[in-house]
Amino acid sequence: MADVSGTELSEEKENEIELKKRQKRPWEEFRRSGKIGITPELPETLGFFDISAVKREQQEVSADPSLTRFICTELTRGYFLEHNEAKYTERRERVYTCMRIPKELEKLMIFGFFLCADAFLYIFTLLPLRVLLALLRLLTLPCCGFSGSRLLQPAQVCDMLKGLILVLCFSMMHYVDYSMMYHLIRGQSVIKLYIIYNMLEVADRLFSSFGQDILDALYWTATEPKERKRDSIGVIPHFFMAVFYVFLHSILIMVQASTLNVAFNSHNKSLLTIMMSNNFVEIKGSVFKKFEKNNLFQMSNSDIKERFTSYVLLLIVCLRNMEQFSWNPDHLWMLFPDVFMVVMSEVAVDIIKHAFITKFNDITADVYSEYRASLAFDLVSSRQKNAYTDYSDSVARRMGFIPLPLAVLLIRVVMSSVKVQGALSYTCVFLFYLGMVTLKVLNSIVLLGKSCVYVKRANMEDKLFERPPTAPSFSAKSPSKSDPRRCTKSSGESIVDQIPATPCSPPTSSSPSVTTQPAPRSDLFLPPPTDASPATADSCPSTSEPQSDTDPPTASPLQEEEADEASDMNHKAPNKDLLEIDRFTICGNRID
To answer: What residues are paired with 486 via a beta bridge?
Structure first.
């Protein structure tokens, strides 16, 4: 009992001591209180806590909550945006970017439109003249004698093939009745026509994607060096395949133009409204996807091609309608509101789509200047001495715009709409042709000047004189046949090229030839090594890139295998440079 009473007295003394401490230091009680679930930060001054502030906090917490206090707090509480300055600055920059998108995008669209117009006018103006020069070369060849192994230069062969394709497809299009197709489409229901028009748009992209491959295969098959003359027979199936493609693509565009013409001539304009609303559906399929800078470049080129094609289709519709109304100018003003509505819907859809894509993917508006410089680089490089393709083909590969089917259809519509009779009519046609040539030349001069400015601003002058990159050969595994990196001189020693992706250039010959390819500039490229015997040079050509002094002239088998693997990896790895993006995809907006 004594022990129990002693412990009770000691506990009472300890409680009294703790009570005194709490009275002296009330903030410790506030900190250790279990009734309040939160522990507010106490104001501190020179290492000591402010007791008055703690007492005010205790009074506020102990006071009963009321509606008046809640309303007063909601009306008087404040916040500072500067506490999250980086976040709000980024939001403001996004707004500024969206406001700059229409201007920058339309600059790119206008530049790309005139690029497509230049390639399209080339078919009607300069291509016939180049074909006449090639024919003149063939006719005067027996008089001048054979000065080389080829009858025509590779560029002249391509021009002849383009001319033949145009003539054959135009003659085949005469058997297609445009009026019958128009009335056949007009008899369908609105919903069916809407579905048909969507299917035609998808088919046009598919044809554009595969069509340029067919034409490139034809050009290369016709111009590649051949060891045997019977190898030239392979040009025939490629030529008929190209003619069949251009004819089918022309019919496809004709059906598109007929459907658009039916929409213009409908009484309630319901089909035209549905077709315009189809453009806004494109926003849904593009805006909410992830886009990189290269993917946006692909979409921009596809939009340029679609806008130019739509303008040509509107021109065909206006020509057909004016023919039906005996070229009455009043009917043209009746068509103008519908044409304006279609054009403005295209522009609005492109602006909205690109504005939100750049917003959601954090892409600045300055990227469109890079796109414009990349397109300008194609134009400038096609005028260089080391150019490896025609400019119209370069535009086709870059944007997916193939001018041949569209040109065939436009010639067919113009020939059926305009009747040429008498000497005065032919004089007007000749003057119109001279006007088109003048327009083409002026457009090319202005575009070339602008392109030089854009290339200079982007600091891309050094790339103009680089050799075009080519993929390594698929048969590079066999060193005895077609390894472009192993060449033997006349003395028998082997040389391994240090750059596997660079193709071998043919040996130079002392005899002049009119069929030689354009040579690169001598002040920028070193001349390729010449061989003593032409037989050994033909069997294994030498490369134009000289070996450095530090590299050994020969390589071990292990190093050769590593070089093969490196070249294969370089061939498989995607190139992210804008200059290497080629025709993109069937829809123009593939997401990697």
So the answer is: 496
Q: Dihedral sign, CA of 220, 223, 225, 226?
A: positive
Distance of CA 400 to the CA centre of its chain: 9
Q: DSSP labels for 212-253?
A: HHHHHHHHHHHHS--SSGGGGGGHHHHHHHHHHHHHHHHHHH
Render pLDDT for 491-545 as a digit per residue (tens, 0 to 9). Answer: 334 333 333 333 333 333 333 333 334 444 444 344 444 444 434 434 434 444 4
Q: Which two tokens stand for residue 335?
A: 């068509």
Tokens of 120: 């399209």
pTM, 2 dp: 0.68
Residue spans of the domains in the chain: they are 87-141+151-464
How does pLDDT run across 42-68, given as a tens digit for each residue? Answer: 444 444 556 666 666 666 555 567 888
List, as own/partner pairs, every contact residues 362-365 make where C-beta atoms lie below 8 angstroms and the sequence separation is at least 24, other chains included: 363/291, 363/293, 363/296, 364/97, 365/97, 365/100, 365/101, 365/104
Reading the block at residue 360, the tokens are 């959601």
Compute how many other C-beta atoms are within 10 angstroms of the C-beta atom of residue 392: 23
Residue 256 exposed, middle or buried by CB count within 10 Å (0-12, 13-18, 19+)? buried
CA distances from 80 to 42, 77, 179, 465 (A): 21, 11, 70, 56
